[in-house]
Amino acid sequence: MTRSLTILGIESSCDDTAAAVVRDCDVLASVVYGQTALHAEFGGVVPEIAARAHAEKLDHCVEQALEEAGITFADLDAIAVTAGPGLIGGVLSGVMCAKGLSAATGLPLIGVNHLAGHALTPRLTDQLTYPYLMLLVSGGHCQFLIAGGHDSFQRIGGTIDDAPGEAFDKTARLLGLPQPGGPSVEKAAKTGDARRFKLPRPLLNQPGCDMSFSGLKTAILRARDSVVAEQGGLTSQDQADLSASFQAAITDVLIEKSRRALDAYLALNPERPAFAIAGGVAANTAVREGLIALCAELETDFVAPPLNLCTDNAAMIAYAGLERMQAGEHDDLTLSARPRWPLDKRAAPMLGSGKKGAKA
Ligand code: KG4
Ligand code: ZN
Q: Whole-angstrom Cα distance, residue 322 to residue 166?
């Protein structure tokens, strides 16, 4: 039996400052300070503001996580930190904080790939065994991965331009809804008519499970502009109908491409895998329900972590660090922060990039 491990996780790669304590598969504490209010007036995340806010909040976050877990540094086995990919100033803040703590306490330092944190979350929450198929869908990334081990990921498809979360955020801006766009578009869509605007389903007419979302943003812009030209502005019903039409288009694409990703998986491996989702857009109810129905139809187990472990958090970083430690791996004070860090080292880089750069 492997010995019990208690890991402190630190996350600061985008606009959430987070610290968490994980013991094996138990989340003892997970503290997240969002920065939404700090960036609100700029309509998007401002890297310098994010980095400074992380630097100010990290110590406090770590203290609070240890206190909520009811432990001290002496009870920890290691410190895991997001070392990329992400906004470099934020990643550096976290890495420097973790290095300081490691130097002061003598605890091993473990650098974690943020995307691996998302991709391993179904093992933390549902003890999923390798291999499984994963849809990682977030503000900066969107890819289908076969997870074969804590450091073994095969990308079988992904977005060739924007990530869906980015498209949700842009749509919210175009419609005058608050950031982050995902939750506000989802809320507006509840009272909307998804059939009112005919939006494209990009790349559905092409084989494979690559996706494209930039055309959808342009289509929403055109639809909005034609309503504004006709009526002189948007009513809340227009906002709801545009949101519902947009969400339906994204959902249709993700569901159909997931069906193809399951086919592609079966072409490579004989056994039907569990299908898991993670990343901020996995918090969307329409997307979840669509995938639940697809997996029921295909008699495939579906795993969706709770919403607070789908969006950025440090529990997933602590858990990914725990798997590295179990494999006998760790880093030292030479650990560097990486703005880009693809999970699948063999896959060719995808074209284009998300709002936070070509994260994957
Ligand atoms: O994983 P995450 O917290 O950060 C990274 O991008 O790594 O994902 C944030 C993204 C944002 O674009 C946000 O708008 C989107 O996830 N999101 C949602 C929902 N909640 C968050 N998108 C659609 N529906 C939601 N309920
Ligand atoms: Zn993320």
A: 30
How many CA atoms within 13 Å lie on the side-chain side of 158? 31
The whole-model pTM stands at 0.93
168 touches ligand 1 (CB under 6 Å): yes
Which 8-state DSSP code applies to residue 24? T
Least confident of 30-44, 78-92, 99-113: 30-44
Query: How remote is the CA of residue 306 from the centroid of ligand 1, in Å?
Result: 14
Are 228 and 284 in the same domain? yes
Report strand pairing: 152-158 vs 142-149: antiparallel
Cα 227 versus chain centre, distance: 33
CB atoms within 10 A of CB 278: 28
In a domain, 124, yes or no: no
- Model confidence at 45, in pLDDT bands (50, 70, 90)? confident
The confidence score (pLDDT) of residue 1 equals 54
Give yes or no for residue 192 CB within 6 A of ligand 1: no
Tally of CB atoms within 10 A around 71: 17
3-state secondary structure of 113: strand
Q: Are residues 166 and 270 in the same domain?
A: yes
pLDDT tens across 258-270, in order?
999 999 999 988 8
Distance from residue 341's CA to the centre of ligand 2 (Å)? 13
